[in-house]
Design a protein that fits this description.
Membrane topology: Multi-pass membrane protein
Keywords: Membrane, Transmembrane, Transmembrane helix
Oligomer: single chain
InterPro entries: Aquaporin-like
Protein name: Aquaporin
Main location: membrane
Radius of gyration: 17 Å
């Protein structure tokens, strides 16, 4: 199943360096780390 690239929304280049975008990316990264380490710790407990 492939997604046609004509239907993907890309946005503007200046959005990549917007402070809110960077803050959201950092929040996603931190929450992913918490999720991964919690899952790994749960797996090690059993």
């Amino acid at each position: 199943m492939s997604i046609p690239f004509s239907r993907v929304a890309w946005g503007r280049p200046e959005e990549a360096t917007h402070p809110d975008t960077l803050k959201c990316a950092l929040a996603e990264f931190i929450s992913t780390l918490i999720f991964v380490f919690a899952g790994e710790g749960s797996g090690m407990a059993f």
